């Protein structure tokens, strides 16, 4: 990807003429409170100081002219989607024939992006996902050179929306090949259904519908009315005496003794699966798109110490880092894991309100601010604003010879309450 021309010379919005190009710029400008560096980045982009931009999976890279005789190497990194997230995104594109046609025509349907985002798959980068890097000595986040790369890229995202897919990990050809494969599979399934109308649907049913069907067919023994066995006899051609017991049967067969999984392990996994299914039926989808590493953290947070060690070994994680994430999950759930992993960019209003609350408290204290983190160095306490709108308390601890910030108390929407919890947990 190379710049076709210099960016327009007037106005922030002049860099993009489409809604998705402007969304890219909005994400950049929401990722920092440093308006000065953004303004200089716009100037650099308008003057054509950004050399050809290379778009790679997970990164934009370009040389940018500055105050030295040689250009600086600037880059902006974006997280690559997991395979599960790609499946969700491609399913959303394939759901409507018009989506693929629009992309091929250089358009990004808003409902496509909205449907994917509601399923936890952001095609357009969020502010906290933009991670700038530059060889210049400026410690800005982003510096003016990385900002210039973002502004210069907006025009090309306008012209070729498949660059958004490339940034997320898959290029135009692989995306189109995957969409063709989905169309062929759907066509095959439709043909099979036409030949056998009684065949089951190939993709199952919604979890909520499954629970409804279960309640309509199976009744717990304690709620059975006299004669209820006869009421379900028509479901089983053999008659009531041959009907299976409607009560859920426990696992009675031990797994192979040579395997690593025991009967209690299987029972615990079944219980976890049932709890997640019930949560999904109730609309709680936070755990739906966890990758394998974060799902291992989620399972370890509610499991025994034996599972903790096996999950660390099985995932190849650093034990200390894994333990830190597990503690984050216990105090803050799935949002706690995200808050521990990533320095987010919060809503500036939420951050300002928290700073005001701490300044107006009975004990005003010096607070250092960076991204979503309010650090009280004198007390060894840090509050992190999470994607769930809560403040997650951290304390400075030294474990296994490493000093780091560790989750120390449950998250709370009130920063003062979170601070009090952190102090109580640390005996302050």
Mean pLDDT: 75
**Number of helices, counting only DSSP H or I runs of 4 residues or more:** 16
What Rg is obtained from the alpha carbons, in whole angstroms?
27 Å
The number of E-state strands comes to 9
Number of structurally distinct domains:
2
Low-confidence stretches: 2-12, 214-249
Strand content: 5-15%
Q: How is the largest sheet built, in terms of strand order?
A: 5-6-7-8-9
State the share of residues found in helices, binned by percent. 40-55%
Shape: globular
Major β-sheet annotation: 5 strands, antiparallel
Instruction: Kindly report how far apart the N and C termini lie.
Output: 56 Å
What is the N-to-C order of secondary-structure elements (H for helix, E for strand)? HHEEEHHHEHHHHHHHHHHEEEEEH
Protein model, in words:
The chain is α+β, with helices and mostly antiparallel strands. It has two domains: 12-180, no CATH class; 292-425, no CATH class. 47% of the residues lie in helices and 11% in strands. The chain has 16 helices and nine strands. The protein has a five-stranded antiparallel sheet. Strands 1-2-3-4 form a four-stranded antiparallel sheet. Helix 3 (83-94) crosses helix 8 (172-195) and helix 9 (207-217) packs across helix 11 (263-281). The chain is globular and about 55 Å long.
């Amino acid at each position: 990807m190379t710049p076709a021309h210099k960016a327009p010379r007037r106005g922030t919005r002049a860099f993009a003429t489409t809604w998705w190009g402007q969304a890219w710029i909005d994400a950049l400008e929401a990722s920092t409170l440093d308006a000065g560096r953004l303004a200089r980045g716009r100037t650099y982009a308008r003057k054509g100081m950004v050399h050809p931009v290379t778009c790679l999976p997970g990164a934009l890279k370009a040389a940018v002219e500055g105050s030295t005789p040689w250009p600086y190497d600037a880059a902006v990194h974006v997280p690559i989607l997991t395979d599960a997230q790609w499946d969700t995104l491609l399913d959303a594109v394939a759901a409507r024939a018009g989506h693929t046609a629009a992309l091929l025509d250089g358009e990004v349907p808003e409902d496509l992006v909205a449907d994917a985002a509601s399923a936890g798959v952001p095609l357009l980068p969020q502010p906290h996902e933009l991670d700038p890097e530059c060889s210049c000595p400026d410690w800005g986040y982003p510096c003016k050179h990385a900002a210039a790369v973002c502004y210069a890229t907006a025009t090309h995202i306008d012209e070729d929306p498949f660059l958004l897919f490339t940034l997320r990990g898959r290029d135009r050809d692989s995306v189109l090949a995957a969409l063709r494969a989905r169309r062929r599979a759907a066509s095959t399934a439709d043909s099979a259904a036409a030949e056998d109308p009684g065949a089951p649907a190939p993709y199952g049913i919604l979890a909520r519908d499954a629970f409804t069907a279960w309640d309509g067919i199976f009744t717990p023994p304690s709620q059975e009315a006299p004669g209820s066995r006869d009421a379900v006899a028509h479901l089983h051609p053999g008659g009531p005496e041959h009907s299976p017991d409607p009560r859920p049967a426990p696992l009675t067969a031990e797994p192979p003794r040579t395997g690593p999984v025991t009967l209690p392990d299987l029972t615990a996994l079944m219980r976890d699966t049932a709890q997640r299914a019930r949560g999904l039926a109730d609309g709680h989808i936070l755990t739906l798109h966890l990758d394998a590493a974060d799902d291992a953290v989620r399972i370890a947070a509610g499991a025994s110490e034996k599972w903790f060690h096996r999950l660390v070994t099985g995932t190849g994680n650093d034990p200390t880092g894994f333990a830190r994430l597990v503690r984050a999950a216990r105090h803050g759930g799935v949002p706690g894991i995200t808050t521990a992993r990533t320095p987010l960019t919060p809503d500036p209003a939420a951050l300002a309100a928290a700073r005001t609350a701490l300044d107006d408290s009975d004990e005003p204290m010096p607070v250092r601010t960076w991204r979503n983190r309010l650090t009280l160095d004198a007390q060894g306490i840090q509050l992190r604003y999470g994607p769930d709108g809560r403040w997650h308390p951290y304390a400075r601890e030294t474990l296994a010879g490493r000093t780091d910030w560790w989750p120390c108390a449950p998250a709370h929407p009130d920063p003062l309450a979170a601070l009090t919890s952190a102090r109580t947990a640390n005996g302050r």
